[in-house]
Amino acid sequence: MSQANKYFAGLDIGGSTVKAALVDANGASTGALVEVKSRVKEGYKTTFEQLQEALRQLAEKANIEVSAIRGAGMDVPAPNCEGVVWTRANLGDDWVGTNVRDELSELLGIPVYMTNDGNAAALGEYAVRPDYSGGLLLVAPGTGLGGGLVLPGGKIYAGANGLALEVGHISVPHREENGELPECSCGLKGCAEAWVSLMALRRRVSIEVAKDEWKDHPLASDEISVIEKAFQLRDYAEKDDPLAVQIFQQQGQILGYALADLVRVFDPGKVVIGGGLADTSENFRNRYMGWIQEGFIERAWPVYRNSPIEPEKVTTSFEWAAGGDFSAALGMGFVAKDLFGK
Predict the structure, then answer these.
(1) Helix, strand, or coil here: 57?
(2) pTM score, whole prediction
(3) Assuming Cys at both sites, which of 13, 103, 162, 210 could form a disulfide with 81, CB separation 3.0 to 4.6 Å?
(4) Does residue 25 contact residue 68 with C-beta atoms inside 8 Å?
(5) What is the mean pLDDT of residues 190-195?
(6) What stretch of H or E contains 52?
(7) Shortest CA distance to 195 belongs to which of 274, 243, 248, 234?
(8) Which CATH fold topology does 136-322 show?
(9) What is the pLDDT of residues 215-226, one digit of tens each?
């Protein structure tokens, strides 16, 4: 098969869906994008069936044979190393301890690269910035707080055991009004994720609406679950609601504070903010980014903000994620092309 007829798939496995993308031998997206159910709770073999269906649909959309797909990049929503999933996370029990990378490679008859979802999203954001070749740190507030680091030149930093960049679990010195450190979903206290995540929003809105100053706020209604209240916060913030703005302002400033320490360690040059907040209105994004900058300035040394040699040169730039829902899948496709397209 000639090089021009080779294609590479990116497979982004989430808790509910698989997003798939196709990249050609030149490293360009073919535009073929597919989404199918992941069925991860039913076991990895069931998900493999869904991956095969995604590849079939990709080939059909690109008007090629499935056999033209000569390599794949895959990410899973759990810590993993050398193809082996280490913890269950949102997966079925049989994923843990299984080398799903090698199993899938044998099933498909093509080489497969595997990493976690945070790394995949970082690679995707790197891929949609072809004119940028420096380092890139991605943080993605969502249900939790994920992240990934791409080194200059486009190589992901995964760590010796594939466990690097658990950015949500660095400690921040912020306490509740009663002086307590909030408990994180990981079991520790004081993690950044305990302040910057959907889970954190649920806790914060519950605490705030219990106060007298917010007793007449619509979110104080007992008829709305705390889960729904947290989901509604963003809509309220878009309308400049004081309660919602106060909660998101605190979240953004704490995220910026945490980012200052991450930048001090990695000095990536570019920080990308992903997750659902990247899809909000421009007005809200601008305000939230301003809050991040406030927290960053409070904690970061001046040299991590501007060059001491060229004062006008920004040493750490901040951007919103630009790749959309399929950025992780595209990132995996680009990596597969680079690894297996020689």
Answers:
(1) helix
(2) 0.87
(3) 162
(4) no
(5) 96
(6) helix 44-62
(7) 248
(8) Nucleotidyltransferase; domain 5 (3.30.420)
(9) 999 999 888 899
**b/e code 92-109 from CB counts within 10 Å (16+ = b):** beebbebbbbeebbeebe
Q: Provide φ and ψ at 27, rounded to 5°.
A: 80, 20
CA distance 112 to 103: 9
At 81-101, the pLDDT tens digits run 999 999 888 799 999 999 999
Token readout for 84 is: 């082996």
DSSP string, 173-224: ----TTSPPPBPTTS-BSBGGGTSSHHHHHHHHHHHHTSGGGTTSGGG-TTS
3-state SS string for 104-125: HHHHHCCCEEEEEHHHHHHHHH
Q: Among 260, 253, 254, 256, which residue's Cα sits nearest to residue 300?
A: 260
Q: How far is CA 329 from the centre of its chain?
A: 12
Share of the chain above pLDDT 90, in %: 81
CATH number for the domain running over 3-128+325-340: 3.30.420.40
126 three-state secondary structure? helix
* Token pair listed for 156: 């992901």
Phi, psi of 308 (to 5 degrees): -70, -15
Domain boundaries, the chain: 3-128+325-340, 136-322
Residue 342 neighbours by CB distance under 10 Å: 6
